């Protein structure tokens, strides 16, 4: 238990500065939006999103995780599998905390908008694609799963760069960039859209959660004999 607490503390401290800067900038933009609405709200409507910048931030932070923490943990005597276990638990906790912050921010924005009778600010969130009258819990669950998926995806990219170097990493990026192009050329997006449209939010979230866990297990398996120093 002490080892897990210590691991969480080290992982948190590794991203403490980045988290403070990111959330400070994000909430400053929210305050700026309210300020602009006070002067220009009668002429134009403002749209803001809390979740999408957080998804991008989490993905970017995960792409640096191994380089920042793996050598240090191995020097402390942890095995690679222990390291991946603690990183996985930290990612789940980090996703849940991020989702709670997003949901609370939405509640505060809605409360302030109602209090000051502001009707020109629109909050954009992925859950609106499924249900307009969403609850606090639904928002937290959706964001937790999406943030966990972002962390797993970013960590996968980090592993590829860490083990295969720049050539392998950019080859993976090129392959991923090719997928949407092929989907447009061969019109694969149409059946995919119909599948998502006919699926419930619980089915989609469950599938993404299972895929995220599976992806993390694949990453963990690839870390068994990884070198301390990246390629």
Query: How do the helices and strands follow one another from N- to C-terminus?
Result: HEHHHEHHH
Q: Strands across the major sheet, in which order?
A: 1-2
Report the span from N to C terminus: 33 Å
Label the overall shape.
globular
- Largest sheet data: 2 strands, parallel
Q: Any idea what the radius of gyration is?
A: 20 Å
Overall strand count? 2
Q: Which bin fits the share of residues in helices?
A: over 70%
Summed over residues and divided by their number, the pLDDT gives a mean of 83
Derived structural class: mainly alpha
Enumerate how many helices there are, as a single number: 7
* Residue runs with pLDDT of under 50 for 5 or more positions: none
Can I get a quick summary?
This protein is mostly helical. It is built from seven helices and two strands; from the N terminus they run αβαααβααα. It is globular and about 60 Å long.
Overview of the structural elements:
By secondary structure, the protein is mainly α. The chain has seven helices and two strands; from the N terminus they run αβαααβααα. Strands 1-2 form a two-stranded parallel ribbon. Helix 2 (51-62) crosses helix 5, helix 4 packs across helix 5 (136-185) and helix 5 (136-185) crosses helix 7 (201-222). The protein is globular and about 60 Å long.
């Amino acid at each position: 238990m002490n080892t897990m607490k210590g691991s969480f503390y080290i992982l948190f401290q590794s991203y403490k500065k980045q988290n403070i800067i990111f959330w400070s900038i994000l909430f400053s933009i929210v305050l700026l939006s309210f300020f602009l609405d006070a002067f220009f709200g009668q002429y134009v409507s403002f749209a803001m999103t809390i979740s999408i910048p957080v998804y991008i931030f989490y993905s970017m932070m995960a792409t640096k995780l191994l380089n920042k923490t793996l050598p240090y943990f191995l020097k402390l005597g942890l095995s690679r599998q222990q390291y991946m276990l603690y990183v996985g638990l930290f990612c789940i906790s980090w996703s849940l905390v991020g989702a709670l912050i997003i949901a609370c921010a939405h509640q505060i924005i809605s409360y302030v908008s109602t209090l000051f009778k502001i009707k020109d600010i629109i909050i954009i969130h992925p859950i609106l694609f499924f249900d307009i009258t969403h609850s606090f819990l639904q928002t937290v669950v959706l964001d937790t799963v999406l943030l966990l998926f972002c962390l797993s995806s970013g960590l996968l990219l980090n592993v590829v760069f860490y083990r295969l170097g720049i050539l392998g990493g950019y080859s993976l990026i090129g392959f991923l960039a090719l997928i949407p192009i092929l989907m447009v050329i061969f019109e694969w997006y149409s059946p995919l859209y119909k599948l998502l449209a006919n699926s419930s939010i619980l089915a989609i979230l469950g599938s993404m959660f299972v895929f995220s866990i599976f992806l993390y297990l694949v990453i963990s398996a690839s870390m068994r004999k990884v070198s301390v120093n990246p390629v």
